[in-house]
Amino acid sequence: MTDGPGSTASLVDILQTIALFAAIVVTVWAAIRQTRAYLGVSFRWIGPRDINEGCEKDAAGRWTTHVFVSNHGSTPAHEVRFKGLCRILPAELEPDALRCTIDAEGKFEAPRISNPGSGLPLYYELRGSAPGRPPLAGERVYAFGHVAYVDIFGWDRSTRFAAYWDEDAIMAAGSGWVAADQHNEAD
């Protein structure tokens, strides 16, 4: 390679091409992140009327509650699948205890579509698999699950959630459900 005006110009051209390519990649990635679906899970829905889900036993004696799955993104979430459980577990959980339980016992429900801005969330029931006794000392009633969906770009996405029931939290936070230390993540 010779030193001269031509070699400097070609080096500048190469660096500008690399910078342009990097800018395009960053712009496309930002556009995808801004326009995709983002599903969130809540035990409370403030809409035409305020609905705050509690923790109770159904007619068969199983612990049960309901959750709202809503889309906070800009595009629809397709093939929304949900699985969740409501059961008594130790207050101090082993790492990944909720993930292992939901993966082993939970079954996905049929696909649905969640449209952003519709004002209506998807509504799911979580219940235990067998009649439940009251929690003993060192135990809590947990509601946890997994929402899987496909975004507008065809990519598989998921949201995992977990909370435990605490009567004392109702007065302090307006809801008895408190987010658990594990199993709350989204991609």
How would you summarize what this structure contains?
By secondary structure, the protein is of the alpha+beta class. It is 25% helix and 38% strand.
Oligomer: single chain
Question: What is the name of the CATH architecture of the largest domain?
Answer: Sandwich
Assess the beta-strand content as a share of residues: 35-45%
Structural class: alpha+beta
Q: How widely separated are the two ends?
A: 48 Å
Shape: elongated
CATH class of the largest domain: Mainly Beta
Low-confidence runs of at least 5 consecutive residues: none
Radius of gyration: 23 Å
Number of helices: 3
Instruction: Note the run of SSEs as H and E.
Output: HEEEEEEHEEEEHEE
- The helical percent reads 25-40%
CATH topology descriptor of the largest domain = Immunoglobulin-like
Question: How would you characterize the largest beta sheet?
Answer: 6 strands, antiparallel
DSSP strand tally: 12
Q: What's the overall average pLDDT, rounded?
A: 81
Architecture blueprint of SSEs:
Blueprint: H1 5-35, E1 39-42, E2 44-46, E3 50-52, E4 56-57, E5 63-71, E6 77-90, H2 97-105, E7 112-114, E8 122-127, E9 139-150, E10 156-165, H3 167-173, E11 177-179, E12 185-186
Antiparallel strand pairs: 1-5, 2-3, 4-5, 5-8, 6-7, 6-9, 9-10, 10-11, 10-12
